[in-house]
Design goal:
Blueprint (H helix, E strand, L loop, with lengths): L1 E6 L5 E7 L9 E5 L2 E2 L3 H10 L7 E10 H8 L6 E9 L1 E2 L5 E2 L5 H4 L8
Parallel strand pairs: 3-5, 4-5, 5-6
Antiparallel strand pairs: 1-2, 7-8
Length: 117
């Protein structure tokens, strides 16, 4: 699965899910990994895209660091059988939707050139 932020302007962005390769997920354990759970939109959209591959028995979400905003967002987007495994939760996001203090722009660097301020 490939998901990334497409910045519309200096403050607004949308999440683009471009590529999905998945076996049948019916009654399987689904593990979704996102190093940084900032807004929660990429995990939620990825899950929506995978729904056509079956209903998992359990869902595990793994992140290294997140923001409370993202944690709250995914609670409404995933079923009860979802388990969040996260090492640290920061309290806020900045006006660009980045975790504060977070890990900087590491996620964006994985999918393209550095964003200009």
């Amino acid at each position: 699965i490939s998901a990334y932020r497409h910045h519309l302007n200096s403050k607004d962005f949308e999440i683009i899910v471009e590529y999905i390769a998945s076996p049948n997920l019916e009654n399987k354990t689904l593990v979704l990994v996102d190093p940084m759970l900032a807004t929660g939109q990429s995990l939620a959209l990825t899950y929506e895209a995978l729904k056509s591959h079956g209903t998992p028995k359990q869902i595990h979400l793994l992140s290294v660091i997140g923001a409370q905003t993202g944690v709250d967002y995914i609670k409404d987007k995933f079923p009860e059988n979802t388990h969040l495994w996260i090492a640290a939760i920061d309290k806020t996001l900045n006006d660009k939707g980045y975790i504060v203090p977070g890990l900087g722009d590491a996620g964006d660097l994985a999918f393209g050139s550095k964003l200009k301020n």
